[in-house]
Design goal:
Blueprint lengths: L1 H11 L7 H26 L22
């Protein structure tokens, strides 16, 4: 618990700043994640018949009703 308190105190201190390298890595990671999200969503939403591919088969036995 002491380590968490010291990390929070250090984050609240204005003398601790993000370095240029840290800012580049953070910005790059955010751009990568948002770009991957946009790519995946556009591929899914542009499919001609998504109902044929994105559903589980009706024969799936889950055994949740057997008692």
């Amino acid at each position: 618990m002491m380590a968490q308190a010291s990390i929070l105190a250090q984050a609240a201190d204005e003398s601790v700043r993000l370095t240029v390298g840290g800012g580049i890595i953070m910005t790059g990671s955010i751009v990568l994640v948002v770009g991957l999200l946009i790519f995946c969503m556009s591929r899914i939403l542009r499919e001609p018949h998504p109902e044929e591919h994105h559903h589980a088969p009706l024969e799936t036995e889950t055994d949740d009703l057997n008692g």
